[in-house]
């Protein structure tokens, strides 16, 4: 059961990373200055990912990606509460 939990969490993390990259690409295409700011704040403080998540919800063409990203985050949090953290 532990192995299955680990595999599912890793797959969900990869899907979340793909969604992150898709949204940052859209932000970069929209305004590269904001894309640079988000990348730097993500790497330095971690808050850039949250800002990107909020920005993504306000972009109507990103709605399907944001729904997937939200569901993945909710599933990851739920699994970590129920089964314990992966790390």
Secondary-structure map:
Elements: H1 2-30, H2 32-44, H3 47-58, H4 63-83
Question: What would your notes on this structure say?
Answer:
The chain is mainly alpha-helical and 87 residues long. It has one domain (2-82). Helix content is 86%, strand content 0%. It contains four helices and no strands. Helix 1 packs antiparallel against helix 2 (32-44) and helix 1 (2-30) packs across helix 3 (47-58). The protein is elongated. The mean pLDDT is 90.
Provide a short characterization of the protein structure:
The chain has one domain (2-82). Helix content is 86%, strand content 0%.
Number of strands: 0
Mean pLDDT: 90
**How would the global form be characterised?**
elongated
Label the structural class: mainly alpha
Summarize the main sheet.
none
Count up the domains. Answer: 1
**Amino-to-carboxy terminus distance:** 16 Å
> Number of helical segments?
4
Uncertain ranges: none
Rg over C-alpha atoms, rounded to the nearest angstrom: 14 Å
Report the order of strands and helices. Answer: HHHH
Strand content: under 5%
Helix content: over 70%
């Amino acid at each position: 059961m532990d192995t299955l939990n680990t595999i599912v969490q890793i797959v969900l993390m990869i899907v979340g990373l793909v969604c992150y990259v898709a949204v940052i690409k859209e932000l970069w295409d929209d305004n590269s200055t904001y894309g640079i700011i988000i990348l730097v704040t993500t790497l330095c403080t971690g808050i850039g990912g949250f800002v990107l998540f909020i920005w993504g919800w306000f972009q109507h063409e990103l709605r399907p990606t944001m729904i997937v990203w939200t569901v993945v985050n909710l599933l990851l949090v739920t699994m970590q509460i129920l089964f314990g953290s992966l790390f």
